[in-house]
Amino acid sequence: MLPVVVVHGGAGHIPKERSERSTEGVCSAARAGYIILQGGGSSMDAVVGAVTELENNPNFNAGCGSVLNVKGDVEMDAIVMDGKSLGSGAVSAVRNIANPIQLARLVMDKTSHVCLTAEGAGQFARSMGVPEVPQESLITEYSRMRWKKNLEPEANPVEFQMGKMGTVGAVAVDSEGNVACATSTGGILNKMEGRVGDTPCVGCGGYADNSSGAVSTTGHGEAIMKVILARLILFHMEQGQSVEAASDLGLAYMKSRVDGLGGVVTVDPQGHWAARFSSGQMAWAAAQKDTLHYGLYTGEHFTQSTEMLLID
After folding, report:
1. Element (H, E) at 249
2. Bond into 3 cis (ω within 30)
3. What proportion of the chain, given as a percentage, has pLDDT over 70?
């Protein structure tokens, strides 16, 4: 069964003209993570590698494709968690950083803290030699268009988050059975300055524990925080539920209790995996046993050989 990596590109409504690029992006990220695992890398190396690839892809709401806050600025959140030690690192409201997921890993590896925020995270990044990038390099024309549209007085609140690209994340199990998760996001469209969502919160944006598994979440952050979605799913797995059943139970509870939609990628230490969502779409991909699995709509599941992809 091992190793395996599963990635998501965000739950929600993906416009038709962007859906193909979302699928291609998650497939590319899963392939990148799987190559790391095949080369003997750890599950943490794999999830950070996969999410870095997604942060560098302007089709996703993370890194260089992040949505803008109400003032038109980029503020990003990210988390990593290591299932072997329960070590975790996170950053929130960071600016001018190309790859927040790598900064989150540095918080885990180089400090005694779990989460650094805003300017404190920026100071830490500078002390670690992480290069700053101009904010303009993180803003796409699409993000700016969505921002302007949602500032209009007649903006429809139902459509407010429609067309937003998704939070990105990955979970993996390496050949030693260690699990890890990583999640990164630009947050929600036109959010208040300083808003912290679910992504950097342990148990919400992600959780990893070798005794049960790993989860990375996406969807409406405030709803995910209220039900502590990632940890809730692992609780169901600890009660004997499968990765799919546990994921569905967590998402169903979030929908019934706080009317929140979302999606998750989940693995257990044996290499069973699931990509489940209650939203209309979620771009996802998984690589295991030299096979790439991927989909976008509910019930969709395509496969192809990763060996073919390695040649491309």
Report:
1. helix 243-258
2. yes
3. 94
Q: Which of 167, 185, 199, 217 is catalytic?
A: 167
Does the annotation flag 40 for ligand binding? Answer: no
Contact (Cβ atoms closer than 8 angstroms) between residue 291 and residue 306: yes
Q: Is position 33 annotated in a ligand binding site?
A: no
| Chunked mean pLDDT (size 10), the chain, 312 residues | 94 85 96 97 98 97 96 97 98 98 98 98 98 96 91 64 71 98 95 95 98 97 97 98 98 97 97 96 96 96 76 38
DSSP state string for 174-243:
-TTS-EEEEEEE--STTPPTT---STTSBTTTEEEETTTEEEEEEE-HHHHHHHTHHHHHHHHHHTT--H
Computed over every residue of the chain, the mean pLDDT equals 93
Give the pairing of strands 76-82 and 273-277: unpaired
- The answer to whether the annotation marks 293 as part of a ligand binding site is no
Pinpoint the alpha helices (H) of the chain: 16-38, 43-55, 100-110, 118-127, 141-151, 221-227, 229-238, 243-258, 306-311
Known catalytic membership, residue 291: no
Cα separation values, 170 from 71, 118, 193, Å = 30, 24, 27
* Residue 186 is labelled as binding a ligand: no
Give me the pLDDT at residue 309, please.
47
Q: Could you tell me how far CA 303 lies from the centroid of its own chain?
A: 22
Domain ranges for the chain, please list them.
4-311
Place of tokens 């046993």: 289
Q: pLDDT digit string (tens) for 45-64?
A: 999 999 999 999 999 999 99
Superfamily of domain covering 4-311: (Glycosyl)asparaginase (3.60.20.30)
pLDDT of residue 163: 46
pLDDT tens per residue, range 128-179? 999 999 999 999 999 999 899 888 876 655 555 544 557 999 999 999 999 9
SS3 70: coil
- Take residue 166 and report the two structure tokens written for it: 């998704």
pTM given for the model? 0.95
